[in-house]
Amino acid sequence: MSSSSPHPPTPQGPGSVFQAPNLPTGFTDTFTSRYVDTDGLRLHAVTGGEGPALLLVCGWPQTWYAWRLLMPALAQDFQVVAVDPRGVGLSDKPLDGYDTGTLASDLVALMAALGHHRFAMVGHDIGMWTGYALAADHPNHLDRLAVAEATVPGLSPSPPLLGSTQSNDRLWHFAFNRLSEVNEQLVKGREHLYFGHQFATKAARKLPDYAVRHYIDTLACDPEALRASFAFYRALDATIAQNQQRRTRQLTLPVLTIAGAQNSGELVGNTMKLAAHDVESLIIDNCGHYPAEETPEDMLAALTTFLAPYRHQDNHDTALR
């Protein structure tokens, strides 16, 4: 691994693989936590497995832990990198850089530091925003892109301010999260109320209490984590402007979209069809916003099929182990 620090410390605490709750049996035999320093930014990633590189990017308000149920099976065929992006989990939380152009550049630098010039990527929620930016801005680095459970601001049409009750229930947090200060004041000390409501209302199959508690405690234990969680939304003006430029050139790589029938449905596929020529779409029944945790078997089956051509290619980079 190449980094600006020859001996970065070992990640510790509940946000690391070493103390995360209720991991699959044998998880830590395959996966380890590491810090990677890139251009002054330290990112936390959980890595393990053999094969071509596969980057997993979580959404709001989750961490790398969202992928835990998929990672052991994926590691049989891929070198898995599940990252805490800028502002998330154990990664650095600078004051700025939360537009998707910067987030995408962060991830290219992360993968390069791990020895991966080309890779495939799976992104959920804000990870889908970042995946679109990475595919558009860095096409020579990305082989295949799978995205789940989001639309892309500046690419897909914005919903009306006064839409249906169902739309408002699903999207009201966008406007709230973009506020400059009062949202932090309202949520601080009430993180379990605010974020707990997000998980409870967006899942068709209830997430385990220990997982929800893990995500919320991660945000509640550090004021910088709460501030950073809103920073992705406060950067939306920049992200929207970037996406309005990106949409002028179509993506040529294969794209898989995954959605829960009880949440985004056709919106995810319709969004990426605005951006790419080669789009395959899956809508999972009895699933809400969190397919990697609500229906991991269905998501794993879709990813296995979609990534098979990438897995069997002969020209992949070899990671610096």
From TrEMBL:
Keywords, comma-separated and alphabetical: Hydrolase
Top-level taxon of origin: Bacteria
Limits of the AB hydrolase-1 domain: 52-293
Region Disordered: start-end pairs: 1-21
Molecular function GO terms recorded: hydrolase activity
SUPFAM superfamilies: alpha/beta-Hydrolases
Stretches with biased composition (Pro residues): 1-12
PANTHER family: HYDROLASE, PUTATIVE (AFU_ORTHOLOGUE AFUA_2G14860)-RELATED, MONOACYLGLYCEROL LIPASE
Name of the protein this chain belongs to: Alpha/beta hydrolase
